[in-house]
Amino acid sequence: MNTDTHATHADDHHHEGGHAHGSFSTYMLGFVLSVVLTAIPFWLVMSGALPSKQITALVIMAFAVVQIVVHMIYFLHMNTTSENGWSMMALIFTIVMVVIALSGSLWVMSHLNSNMMPMHQMSGMK
Amino acid sequence: MTVAVNPSQTGEPVFYLAEEHPHPEGWSTSLGFWIYLMSDCLIFAILFATFGVLGGNYAAGPAPKDLFDLNLVAVNTSMLLLSSITYGFAMLTMQQNKVAQTQVWLAITGLFGLAFIGIELTEFAHMIHEGATPQRSAFLSAFFTLVGTHGLHVSCGLIWLVTLMVQVQKFGLIEANRRRLMCLSMFWHFLDVVWIGVFTFVYLLGVLR
């Protein structure tokens, strides 16, 4: 730390890249949003307000995605600058992995399922 | 110690630091903990994928409609949501250096977490009593593995919370304890994010099916 370049370099690392903190208002805003985003899907399913099950399923999944983003921003304080952007990079990588694992498993297994010979045909083959 | 080639003399770029400058203790903890959480996220992703594949295989056993009580799940979800905001208040009071208030908020968070685990275990006991054990069908195996893993995480979070309350009581809000409380805050809010997936995909979509 005896030269100017060293000092500024150390500064880059330790102050800009710190972990972000919330305030009372952001926590409360996040809480109110998450209560609303939880209550609506529960109400939709319990009351059967929407005419078709498929529409209800799509709507509650959309609510879940929005609520996850709300929690990420207001409770986990995710932003593009914390840890010099590395936490965002790790998050993006994880999201890519999760999407591949989930969609891949569901897609492949549903195809396997529909290509399986039905049980009653299999017993007739003996 | 390390002899670096001076770039100005040879004209070749140097891609490493000849001498690592000193870092204060714990400067990389939050990033490292975040990467741990992301790897934990992958565990849950695989358990969700397993549940997604096996969730419809009832083996002529009970279906989600027969088992799940959405009122109870709603109460459980509110417990976890409330514990999230009270942990947020604990972090805010920690930043203001108020030891006693921080402890109170941490204790309230712990009680909400305990209520969550209590309700979940009651639900599990009720299901097992009705014969809906993990061995009954692929759906129930996947259900107990996914929801049980989440519950186990919350239980570990509770043990961690009590440990940190003792630490804060003994040593106060020193730098190390602040860092630990911040890590637990990330862990706690992360478990809340996972629970959003659980109540949507397991309970709500299960009842809808």
TrEMBL record, chain A:
<keyword id="KW-0249">Electron transport</keyword>
<keyword id="KW-0813">Transport</keyword>
<dbReference type="InterPro" id="IPR005171">
    <property type="entry name" value="Cyt_c_oxidase_su4_prok"/>
</dbReference>
<keyword id="KW-0472">Membrane</keyword>
<dbReference type="GO" id="GO:0005886">
    <property type="term" value="C:plasma membrane"/>
</dbReference>
<keyword id="KW-0560">Oxidoreductase</keyword>
<dbReference type="GO" id="GO:0019646">
    <property type="term" value="P:aerobic electron transport chain"/>
</dbReference>
<comment type="subunit">
    <text>Heterooctamer of two A chains, two B chains, two C chains and two D chains.</text>
</comment>
<dbReference type="GO" id="GO:0015078">
    <property type="term" value="F:proton transmembrane transporter activity"/>
</dbReference>
<protein>
    <recommendedName>
        <fullName>Cytochrome bo(3) ubiquinol oxidase subunit 4</fullName>
    </recommendedName>
</protein>
<keyword id="KW-1133">Transmembrane helix</keyword>
<dbReference type="GO" id="GO:0009319">
    <property type="term" value="C:cytochrome o ubiquinol oxidase complex"/>
</dbReference>
<keyword id="KW-0812">Transmembrane</keyword>
<feature type="transmembrane region" description="Helical">
    <location>
        <begin position="24"/>
        <end position="45"/>
    </location>
</feature>
<feature type="transmembrane region" description="Helical">
    <location>
        <begin position="57"/>
        <end position="76"/>
    </location>
</feature>
<dbReference type="InterPro" id="IPR014210">
    <property type="entry name" value="Cyt_o_ubiqinol_oxidase_su4"/>
</dbReference>
<comment type="similarity">
    <text>Belongs to the cytochrome c oxidase bacterial subunit 4 family.</text>
</comment>
<keyword id="KW-1003">Cell membrane</keyword>
<comment type="function">
    <text>Cytochrome bo(3) ubiquinol terminal oxidase is the component of the aerobic respiratory chain of E.coli that predominates when cells are grown at high aeration. Has proton pump activity across the membrane in addition to electron transfer, pumping 2 protons/electron.</text>
</comment>
<dbReference type="InterPro" id="IPR050968">
    <property type="entry name" value="Cytochrome_c_oxidase_bac_sub4"/>
</dbReference>
<dbReference type="GO" id="GO:0009486">
    <property type="term" value="F:cytochrome bo3 ubiquinol oxidase activity"/>
</dbReference>
<feature type="transmembrane region" description="Helical">
    <location>
        <begin position="88"/>
        <end position="109"/>
    </location>
</feature>
From TrEMBL, chain B:
<comment type="similarity">
    <text>Belongs to the cytochrome c oxidase subunit 3 family.</text>
</comment>
<keyword id="KW-1133">Transmembrane helix</keyword>
<dbReference type="GO" id="GO:0019646">
    <property type="term" value="P:aerobic electron transport chain"/>
</dbReference>
<dbReference type="InterPro" id="IPR035973">
    <property type="entry name" value="Cyt_c_oxidase_su3-like_sf"/>
</dbReference>
<keyword id="KW-1003">Cell membrane</keyword>
<feature type="transmembrane region" description="Helical">
    <location>
        <begin position="138"/>
        <end position="166"/>
    </location>
</feature>
<dbReference type="InterPro" id="IPR024791">
    <property type="entry name" value="Cyt_c/ubiquinol_Oxase_su3"/>
</dbReference>
<feature type="domain" description="Heme-copper oxidase subunit III family profile">
    <location>
        <begin position="1"/>
        <end position="207"/>
    </location>
</feature>
<feature type="transmembrane region" description="Helical">
    <location>
        <begin position="186"/>
        <end position="208"/>
    </location>
</feature>
<feature type="transmembrane region" description="Helical">
    <location>
        <begin position="104"/>
        <end position="126"/>
    </location>
</feature>
<keyword id="KW-0249">Electron transport</keyword>
<dbReference type="InterPro" id="IPR013833">
    <property type="entry name" value="Cyt_c_oxidase_su3_a-hlx"/>
</dbReference>
<feature type="transmembrane region" description="Helical">
    <location>
        <begin position="33"/>
        <end position="60"/>
    </location>
</feature>
<dbReference type="InterPro" id="IPR033946">
    <property type="entry name" value="Ubiquinol_oxase_su3_dom"/>
</dbReference>
<keyword id="KW-0560">Oxidoreductase</keyword>
<feature type="transmembrane region" description="Helical">
    <location>
        <begin position="72"/>
        <end position="92"/>
    </location>
</feature>
<dbReference type="InterPro" id="IPR014206">
    <property type="entry name" value="Cyt_c_ubiqinol_oxidase_su3"/>
</dbReference>
<keyword id="KW-0472">Membrane</keyword>
<comment type="subunit">
    <text>Heterooctamer of two A chains, two B chains, two C chains and two D chains.</text>
</comment>
<dbReference type="GO" id="GO:0005886">
    <property type="term" value="C:plasma membrane"/>
</dbReference>
<dbReference type="Pfam" id="PF00510">
    <property type="entry name" value="COX3"/>
</dbReference>
<dbReference type="GO" id="GO:0004129">
    <property type="term" value="F:cytochrome-c oxidase activity"/>
</dbReference>
